[in-house]
Every structure is written in structure tokens, then in C-alpha cells.
Amino acid sequence: MSLIRPFTGLRPAPRRAGDVIAPPYDVLSTEEARSRAQGKPWSFLHISKPEIDLPAGTDPYSAAAYAKGKDNFEKMLNEGVLRHDPEPCYYVYRLVMGAHQQTGIVAAASIHAYDANRIRKHEFTRPDKEDDRVCQIEALNAQTGPVFLTYRRSSAVDAIIESITHGTPDVDVTADDGVRHTLWVMRDRKQIDAITMTFDAIVCLYIADGHHRSAAASRVAAARRAANPKHTGEESYNYFLAVIFPDNQMQILDYNCVVKDLDGLSRASFLQKIEAAFNVKPESAAVKPGRAGEFGLYVKGQWYRLNIKPECIPANDPVKRLDVSLLQDNLIAPVLGIADPRRDKRIDFVGGIRGLKELERRVDSGEMAVAFSMFPTSIADMMAVADAGQVMPPKSTWFEPKLADGLVSHVLNER
User: Fold this and answer.
1) CATH architecture, range 252-399
2) What's 377's DSSP letter?
3) How confident is the model at residue 415 (pLDDT cuts 50, 70, 90)?
């Protein structure tokens, strides 16, 4: 079974991509999705966030929501807004966000490889979120949210991609957030075979984003395998929708955090306690860390620069050496009393795309007592954790730009 294979993608009809593509389902609240889809009847949000078309307060995980998503999906098919490609293809997908550009391959990735850890994970998943994606796949009989994968770059893949991107794209549209999405359909059989063989020679792929989507696809495949006495391994349910980028083009932004209180400490006592593990220096401007081991700390009206003391950095542990772990183990847990940042309601996380002003705003408003700015996790660190079979702490990575939902979908041919 190949690591990846081409597939007959379901895509917006010519000149309709701008009407269809939407942000990933999990980066918008219901209210934000309803606002973004206002006046856009063909926005993919009507499929990925179908509760926006139901009465306010409808449970997004209800049977009614999944049924509405199916109805909206079928309407877009019946109206010709979405169309199937006639033959299995790969797709070259380029994202441009400001000065950053990354170009990868849209493919169907092997669930067998995922189950065997050749497609490697670095996060725990939550059963309720897996259940949601299982219900969505089953309702549509399709995978519409791509899993974001990466790999150690290959010059052979680079050469094929470069040759294709010299041609005229099939889709070239700038979304309302300013991100440009460009797609070339790879129809040449020799190029398709070359991509398949080149990826088969790659040791492994890594999930950057989409752990719940891939886990859900694996669960659907297992159920359908068990129910199919004629299972061969070639069925479409044995693969999941993925976009695969080389590691040297990946962009990880900082993932910052805010905490509601100082756990009963005065500001002076708090600052004194953190000096056990950090060198602390007041700053006159917002602190954006410039290297690993450096942190910004903001309490109302004042920024500080923190540097972890070398003796507090564990040796030879790919998880404990991460900045997010160093902050958790040396400050968040022992000083602020937050042992489980996954579940503790006193802590919240802020994607770096929102900037340091958002940290100041949340503290100055009185909603939070303290904010921490982080240096971004490196892709090499993420791969090292996955290679070690370990998991990243929560909210360790924030990848930008985000993949578009609705640009290419993978329909499952078998029930």
C-alpha cells in the first residue's frame, strides 16, 4: 500500500473557488462562522459549520447539525458548485501569507501508514472531538477538512513541484483574510507516478495539524473494514485527505498564554518566586522573545524579559526541553498552581497571529492577571518529539497560514 496516492478530488467549479473556500472548521466559533458566511450562500462554512443555518443555540454536535451539513453538501453538488475531477490526480497547493510562501501536495494519505506510526503524531486527541469528525465524515461520506502534514524535504519532490508551478494555475484566489490560495492540478501520469514513488521512499510523514481529523478517518476506516467482507485495502476509506509541505517551508508562530490570577501572591512575591528559575529584567516595551529559553512576562503596565537558567533545562528530553514545558514546569505549576493546563480554567492560550497587543488588552482589562509571550516551537523540535513517540504539551504550535476548507475534498466511494 502506497504512503500516498492520487484521488478524484471534489473541487469548486471554475471561477467558483472564491465563493466556496473557507477557514478550517475549528478556527471559528459558531458566531464568527455565521458572520463570515453572511451573504455567501456557497461558503463551505455551510458544510463545515452547518449549525449556522439552524436556530441560534443549536448544538453543533447534534444529529440535526450533521444532517443540515449533508443537505448543504448535496445542494452544492446538485447545483454544480462542486464538481468531481474525471481522473485521479495530485494537486499542487501554494499558500502565500505576506512574505511567507509554502507549496505542497494535496494527496490521499494511507491510514495503514498512520496506524503503523509511519505518519507520526505529536498530540493527544479528545474522544469528543474525534466523535465529531467521525459523525461529519459519515454524514457527508467525504473528508472535507485536510490534515496538515510535513516531511523532511526532498529535492526530487521539489523539482516536480517547481515544474508544475511554472504552468497556469487552475485556481488562484485571495481569501478575505488576505491569504492567497493557488492550486495546480497534476494530471500527467508520469509526474503522478514519480510523486507516488518518491514519497514511498520517504521514511515518514508528520502531522502538523489535524490530529482529530486523522484519528477520525482511521476510526471510519476500521468500521468500514469490519463491515466489508470483500475488503481489499484499495477502497477510498483506507486513505485520508492531506496536504503535505516540506519542513523547510513550514511556519510556526508563537502560542502565548494568559492566567487569571497570581494564585494569591502579590506582584512583588510573584516576581521574587520566579527568580528561582529565571533571570528577570524589566523592559520598557513589549517583549517578543528572540530565542529559545527566553520569555516575555506582562503584568498590568509592565513587561519583563525572562531567561531560563541553564541548570533548569533538562538534558536529552525532547519534551521537557521545549519552552512550553520549561515555562509550565518552572513557573506555571510551581508558582501559579496550575498543574494541568489542558483542563484548568484559570489559563487560556492566545495564538501569536493576534499579536502582543492582545496579551496587553486581556491583562489591562482585568480579565487576566498575567500574560506570557513565547518563542515559537521549531519544526525540528516537533519532529523530535514525534520520533521519540512522545506528545507535545498542549498549545505548543500555531501553524500559519491555515489550509482552506472546500478547495479539494476526498469523497469516499464506498459505504
Assistant:
1) 2-Layer Sandwich (3.30)
2) P
3) low
